[in-house]
Amino acid sequence: MLGATALSAMTGGAMLRRAEAAEANDGPVKHEDHGDKDDRYTPVVTVDGSTMPFKIVDGVKEFRIVAEPIEQEFAPGMKVKCWGYNGSTPGPTIEAVEGDRVRLFVTNKLGEHTTIHWHGLLLPCGMDGVGGLNQPQIEPGETWVYEFTLRQHGTQMYHPHADEMTQMAFGMMGMFIIHPKKPERKVDRDYAIMLHEWMVPPGAYRPDPNVMLDFNTFTFNGRVFPGTSPLLAQLGERVRVRFGNLSMDQHPIHLHGYQFKVTGTDAGPIPETAQWPMTTVPVPVGATRDFELVADAPGDWIMHCHKSHHTMNAMGHDVPNMIGVDQREGDLEKKLRALLPGYMAMGQQGMAEHQDHARHMKGPANTLPMMSGEGPYGNLEMGGMFTMLKVRDQLPRDGGDPGWYEYPKGTQAWKVDG
Ligand SMILES: [Cu+2]
Fold it and tell me: Using one digit for the tens of pLDDT, what is the confidence trace for 150-170?
């Protein structure tokens, strides 16, 4: 069970996936965590995701993991047939403390065999989970047990080491966070975000695992903007954000309005003297990065991958570039319409008009427009790996979304004549 602190920190996050409304960030925070409680740490909040329940049995922390086909809503309007753990992709975040003995039951409900590899963990070789090498594969219907003592702390991950290409492309992955035995610098809010990328062909419901480079959907914890929940912080709080990346690309994560320090990698904490101040942290493939900041600047600060195609939803990469082509010249648009009924010239001045067009032009089924989302001043023209850090001097008591930031007078850009 999560403590009250964690619940309030969850801030419209954890259960948004199950919320009906498009941007219902203020929905009730419920949790389906029936396990035991661990008071030794402030639980991490897996934004839009969940924490894996556990039971302490004879001093061993037991987790039950089910590998299974699932349906994941990336954002309202797009549900994808994925594979995951315990009903979601990424699977629930596993949390424990350095020195703990953990017992992880893995039940395979997929149609093919699987295993789990504990990525970055120091453990006996026979627990490493490489199917065919460290153990036989876990066949459909079987349950296998991994058990080891945690000899480190930091942000780690878990994923299959069996038919990896398919199983990871379908979303099988999760975070494995080990808190230090001797508490280090305490943070007030601790967030975890698993980065992933997918090729979901327009009109399709299932990701294509054969794609190597040309992905069209980029998720934070299995959600794309505008389906991502904001991270919240109260003025003065110390915030940690942990990123894990098991996708096929590096993702440079950029936060506006702050300089943060990169405080941890998959090999644990970085000594203070070696911590890098940054505004963009590259999260390499097969690695994790933690950063920390003190939330001293109020506002709505965006946080996103800085590869600009990664902040778009599905787009046609093969379309001819029409920017600068005046199709009204010589009635070109009209002539084309005679050949192609309904043809409309688009993208002559840029692509921003796409967001408005997407509102009244029906695209393929189960496919989100390339750009979407609205702010207090109009279209945000974003998608994919995009969210916000909302910092307020007073967050709503229920831990919900505080709404849009109210800019103090004289602190906003203004328009002039000429
Ligand atoms: Cu990216």
Answer: 999 999 999 999 999 999 999
For the chain, first and last CA: distance in Å? 60
Gap from CA of 292 to ligand 1 centroid (Å): 20
Rounded to 10 degrees, the C-alpha dihedral 293/298/299/305 comes to: -10
> How far is the CA of 217 from the CAs of 127, 214, 344, in angstroms?
33, 10, 26
Q: CA-CA distance, 48 to 173, in Å (whole number)?
A: 15
Neighbours of 99 (CB within 10 A): 13
From the CA of 264, how far away is ligand 1's center (Å)?
20
- C-alpha distances (whole Å) from 140 to each of 118, 125, 129 are 20, 23, 16
Give 214's Cβ-side CA count (13 Å radius). 8
Distance of CA 228 to the CA centre of its chain: 8
Phi/psi at 199 (5° precision): -115, 105
What token pair was written down for 80?
């994808």
Residue 54 has pLDDT above 70, yes or no: yes
Shortest CA distance to 230 belongs to which of 24, 18, 1, 20? 24
User: Where does 170-325 have alpha helices with state H?
Assistant: none
Tens of pLDDT along 234-244?
999 999 999 99
CA-nearest of 62, 172, 46 to 116 is: 172
How far apart (Å, rounded) are the C-alpha atoms in residues 21 and 25?
Answer: 9
Q: Residue 278 corresponds to which tokens in the numbers above?
A: 């940054």
Phi, psi for 262 (deg, rounded to 5): -80, 115
Inter-residue contact 233 to 390 (CB < 8 Å):
yes
CA 306 to centroid of ligand 1, rounded, Å: 6
Return the amino acid letter for 105. F
- 173 closest CA partner among 282, 73, 248: 248
Predicted model pTM: 0.88
Give me ligand 1 centre to Cα 282, in Å: 9
Ligand 1 centroid distance, CA of 220 (Å): 10
Asked whether the beta carbons of 115 and 152 are under 8 A apart, the reply is no
Beta strands 154-159 and 276-278 are unpaired
